Amino acid sequence: MNLETMTIEELDYGVHVVTINNPPANTLSAGIQRDLLQLLEEVENNQAIRAMVFKSANPKIFIAGADLGSMGSTKESVDIAESSKHVQDIFNRLEALKVPTIAAINGHALGGGCEFVLACDFRIMGQGTIGLTEASLGLLPGAGGTQRMTRLVGGAKARELMYLSKRLKAEQAAAIGLITEAVSPEEVEEKAISLATTLAQSAVGAIGLIKESILAAEELSLEQGLLVEREAFAKTFTTGEVEEGIRAFFEKRPPNFLKPVTNQ
User: Fold this and answer.
1) Which of 130, 128, 129, 139 is nearest to 163 (CA)?
2) Active-site residue, 115 included
3) Could you tell me if 116 and 61 are in contact, meaning their C-beta atoms sit under 8 angstroms apart?
4) In the predicted model, what is the mean pLDDT of residues 240-264?
5) For residues 5, 10, 16 and 17, what is the CA-based torsion angle, rounded to 10 degrees?
6) 34-83 residue pLDDT tens
7) Cα separation of 240 and 203, whole Å?
């Protein structure tokens, strides 16, 4: 892949670490959006990638949010809505990836940066702040933030955080479930890679289908969600993981899921 704003390091067990580097402030620019789309397409089609970690090359900023300078003062609401939909679609694809995704947050993740990490499965955070601060600019989160934050923390807390443009430190964010874990800045990358390594050695085919079912629970009725669940359950028998898992159970040994998944 020829990415301008990201570099990728491949570790053991199919763990891939993506470093976002879009100086000076890691704004969620068209370049990052373009690179992220290319990256997502690669992950969707490469079964050797079993877990993803996202981190920033900027020690003070994970992602700063939208490129405000590029917004200008346009009043064309149709164009603005289409631009919002474009980023929503990217983050939807990130959220729906069949492999586990972890945001290793050192530095501020505000506005669009917060929306990015909310689309990841796990958020490990050290220094900096996190929040949807768009209302302080007369805007609102337009890349899925109003929906994902509300589902994570509930409507009352989401109103408080977004209406008041609150910026939370790691411990505060962990206390309300906005992030997975608060750690020291020195531990962020190590913790994220350790979690990714554990997940990558797990049944990633089943994990991807669990993720699909969880998203259905958030978006669909119970009846529709149960349909997704039973279809996903049936799909687990096409991955090759069930045979290994059951065999390992009876042989009283840890399962080895590190062979290619045949279908997800």
Assistant:
1) 139
2) yes
3) no
4) 84
5) -50
6) 999 999 999 999 999 999 999 999 999 999 877 666 655 555 666 888 99
7) 10
